[in-house]
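Budget justification aside, the reviewers requested a transparent look at the raw inputs and outputs of the sequence design task funded under Objective 1. We therefore reproduce one unedited record. The lines immediately below are the structure tokens for a 71-residue chain.
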């Protein structure tokens, strides 16, 4: 596993991070309904593209397993 600072945010990376986000939210935020998650999910790709500092954790096969963003 490695931790990297991401500058280029490809469509594939955003899609992969959206999957990580949704999986995490569904596991940790059981108080949210499916409708609420889907409504929030609409905003996540734009946020991932525009956050100034984006750091991801990826497996050896370059599949993201976590991320963090900073302003």
């Amino acid at each position: 596993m490695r931790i990297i600072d991401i500058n280029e945010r490809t469509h594939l990376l955003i899609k992969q991070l959206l999957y990580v986000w949704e999986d995490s939210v569904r596991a940790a935020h059981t108080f949210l309904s499916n409708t609420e998650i889907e409504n929030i999910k609409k905003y996540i790709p734009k946020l991932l593209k525009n956050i100034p500092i984006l750091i991801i954790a990826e497996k050896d096969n370059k599949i993201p397993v976590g991320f963090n963003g900073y302003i």
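The two ends are 25 Å apart (CA to CA). The chain has a mean pLDDT of 96. Computational costs for records of this kind are itemized in the attached budget.
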